[in-house]
Amino acid sequence: MSSSQRKSPNRKRSAHGDCPTCGNARVVSTVEDVVLTVHGRKHRFENIPHEKCLNCGERIFGIEASHLFDAALHPKKRSRAA
Ligand SMILES: [Zn+2]
Q: Which of 12, 22, 43, 51 places its Cα 20 to 30 Å from the Cα of 75?
């Protein structure tokens, strides 16, 4: 008898993935205010959806957060060719 059902070595990764800093899988989605230093200035961004590692506290920002940072830093996007 040959069992065709083999356990795939490819583990399904969680939607959030592991923490890039500590490798812990306890990464949760959250929406919090975030303070970042951009060009030497502190900026406060409100209600930024991102992922946070419960183990080390590392914050992981995705594309959505990047867009929000960008929109906050550049409220009016000017198409200005240098
Ligand atoms: Zn971590």
A: 51
